[in-house]
Specification:
about 270 residues; alpha/beta; Udp-n-acetylmuramoylalanyl-d-glutamate--2,6- Diaminopimelate Ligase, Chain: A, domain 1; 5-stranded mixed β-sheet; 10 helices; 11 strands; globular; metal-binding; DUF34/NIF3_sf
Length: about 270
Amino acid sequence: MTLHDVTAAFESVYDPAWAAPWDAVGLVCGDPDQPVRRVLFAVDPVAAVVDEAVAWGADLVITHHPLLLRGVTTVAATTPKGRVVHRLIGSGTALYTAHTNADTADPGVSDALAAAVGLTGPLVPLDPDPADPSGRRGIGRVGTLPAPVRLREFAARAAEGLPDTAAGIRVAGDPDAEVRRVAVSGGAGDSLLGAARSAGADVFLTSDLRHHPASEFAEQGGIALVDVPHWAGEWPWLADGADRLASALGPRGATVEIRVSTTVTDAWSWTERV
């Protein structure tokens, strides 16, 4: 199959038109006519992932995070992003990104996160897309646990369901508080704090919670917070994205091998207690 064949199948599942106006999704580098036999899914388009792709012989890397989200004036190999571009082109490896269009898909990034931490259906959007008449597509998900648990148990379940990172997870709330209704959002979610409260959630699990918004939210009481590493919270989507691509390719996809990267690209490599 060609790169065009594979990306067209992928876009039938994760329509680029669903991406936010500020986002940068789609094909970053690669010849649409080049053959694709191996596809690697990863969260971040960083050097370690490119190394993994080249070592495996991947023809295409599909990442969740964009490489060139903000404008650049050069891709010279003297810059980190430039080195990634040069390595990809030099090895004949294409790069495609699916960011907010994968967040808002049905199912999308937050559906995979919800499953990883034990939520059961039906799941509803935490922040629905008003342009979607079904009301299903949007950012974040809200669901329920099979049975109520204590916050400490839910946090342990989340840690078990997500990949290991140096930073681990952070929790705000009474460890013995009962939780049943859970809101989740893959990626940075502090803009959805109010939505999680309005949804009647007992706990909101997301990433990149800043001190002041989290502190002020906790002062209001009534809902616990679980902060997971950004990379770990989005990693569960990779397997779902890979499976949906394989289904979209159909019988012709038998010639394409798809793998999920296990390279940890979380920004933090170790911690020290203060």
